[in-house]
Amino acid sequence: MASQKTVVRTDRPIVVDATDHIAGRLSSQVAKLLLKGNRVSLVNCEKIMISGTRENIIKEYREFLEINSIINPNHGPVHYRRPDTMITKMIRGMLPYGRKPSGIEAHKRLRAYIGSPKELKSLKKVQFEKAKIKKSVSNYTTMGELGRVIGWTE
Q1: Distance (Å, whole) CA 23 – CA 25
Q2: 110 backbone dihedrals φ, ψ, rounded to 5°
Q3: What pTM did the predictor assign?
Q4: Sign of the CA dihedral 70, 74, 96, 147?
């Protein structure tokens, strides 16, 4: 008889404080939690760090913004400028979103917020040690700063 894994599901979401976390490492940790069946809420998305020099990050994202459809730009890829939607799309890329129904269901269990909403302030917040920044803050750029440069108005 095959052994079955027990998945711990709760009605309350796992609240992740994303302050000073590297974007890619945070995304992979959250994707794993979502695939296990947990509801995850990310707070303080504007404080997520992207590694690399500020100039390179902004230059790469501006090049990414130029990609669109030749026929009709409304058909082309949607380029998000808000930090919460940027991280949501980053996490979606780490889920089997277009391939399996489990990826779509997992993505529906994700919530991302700029700042911390009132209903989540009382809940215990989790941080991932593997995703925390190790070097000084000067080696990173926040998602909020990137968003402001590329057109996000708060």
Answers
A1: 6
A2: -95, 135
A3: 0.87
A4: positive
